[in-house]
Specification:
Elements: E1 3-10, E2 13-14, E3 17-18, E4 27-32, E5 39-40, E6 48-55, E7 59-64, E8 74-76, E9 82-85, E10 91-96, H1 125-131
Antiparallel strand pairs: 1-4, 1-6, 2-3, 5-10, 6-9, 7-8, 7-10
């Protein structure tokens, strides 16, 4: 079953910008989810203002006091770490969505012989001959 990993951090401000969260996290959660119904995390720690999330399947998320993730909610890419600011004691809802995984590399096109295609010299033949 796919899992969304959540790490909770206290938020710190540095000249008006969010600073990099300090380790160790205040708390960690692993929320298993399906496409049948949205799964909801435990409430975040009272000191949590920043979360780090990582999904191992395509999904959408929503954060709030009583969140309900829908197919139109914020989409997460597979295997990409994301950081979000959250209100204190909020929860996160996650829903698996259909479709190919996001964030996976696509293979390069290769010729029938199994070698990568070579670039084509598009100069006229007469010009190619003079340059050799």
């Amino acid at each position: 079953m796919p899992t969304l990993s959540i790490a909770e951090f206290p938020g710190e401000q540095l000249h008006g910008y969010a600073a990099t969260p300090r380790l160790p996290p205040l708390a960690e959660q692993a929320v298993e989810f399906t496409g049948d119904a949205a799964s909801v995390s435990e409430p975040f720690n009272g000191g949590t203002t920043v979360i780090r999330v990582l999904a191992d399947a395509p999904c959408t998320i929503q954060v709030g006091q009583e969140p309900e993730a829908a197919p139109t909610s914020l989409r997460l890419a597979v295997g990409i770490v994301e950081f979000f600011g959250v209100p204190p004691a909020a929860r996160l809802s996650v829903l698996k969505i259909a479709g190919p995984p996001v964030g996976e590399a696509t293979p390069k096109k290769v010729s029938k012989s199994g070698r990568r295609n070579k670039p084509v010299d598009r100069r006229p033949k007469s010009r190619r001959a003079r340059l050799r």
